[in-house]
Amino acid sequence: xxxxxxxxxAARPIDVIEARNHVRQDLTxxxxxxxMAIRATTSFAQAECLRTLxxxxxRLVLDSFPGPSLMGxxxxxxxxxxxxxxxxxxxxxxxxxxxxxxxMTGVQQTMPATDYAVDLTGPVARITPVxxxxxxxxxxQIGAVEVVxxxxxxxxxxxxxxxxxxxxxxxxxxxLAVGDMVRLSNSGGAPPxxxxxxxxxxxxxxxxxGVYTLAATSGGAAIDLTDTGSGxxxxxxxxxxxxxxxxxxxxxxxxxxxDVTALARGRLESVPFVDRLLDPWRLxxx
Length: 286
Fold this sequence. Notes:
alpha+beta; 3 domains; 5-stranded antiparallel sheet; 16% helix
């Protein structure tokens, strides 16, 4: 299934400062090399895990809607991937933006969101028609169906200390409402003070789309931000196991002297002990 990136991530999962510290480099002269290693290990980790680390907008192209025109799901099964479900890889999926298809007259139509159900709770997001509906009949030609969705473990943020707001860079994150709980993370520095990583915060207000003030408790007062933070701050968090794997691998790519380097005929070979760090985060179709 062709998968196209429409809007790429607004940051790397590992800030170059964190990479520099990991390889014990005090100078910035090699930051370009480290950035290339971060890019390479990010791509490899995402391909291995079928997972998106930093929020990205994708376009999935299909020749037709999948499976027979079934209504409902197999009875008696607690979880299934029914034949008529569209499965979205490279999750965790944050939101489905639209489902479009070319109708029998050759005109592209947007399917009403009320006509399909989206399940984002499992390891692989699923889309099926709602009960009592079937997929529409598209024009029988290649590329007649498209699904646009956003996915990622985290999304970079920018802070405004004067307004006490955080803004989602690129707007790629699930829509939040007052009272929703969020967590922040950081690479290469610290979140905007006094915010802390791995701490529950609550949306206090939504001044604009993708712009939020946070409170320490649900319904509490907005937190007064005293700076804009350092490094790269995120809403959400890239799993630490993946980041640890990345740093081990990028050290190998950087200086070829890491304990996890295994070169054979000019290529970086699999290192089972290290690569198993990715196992808990692989999103697979079960």
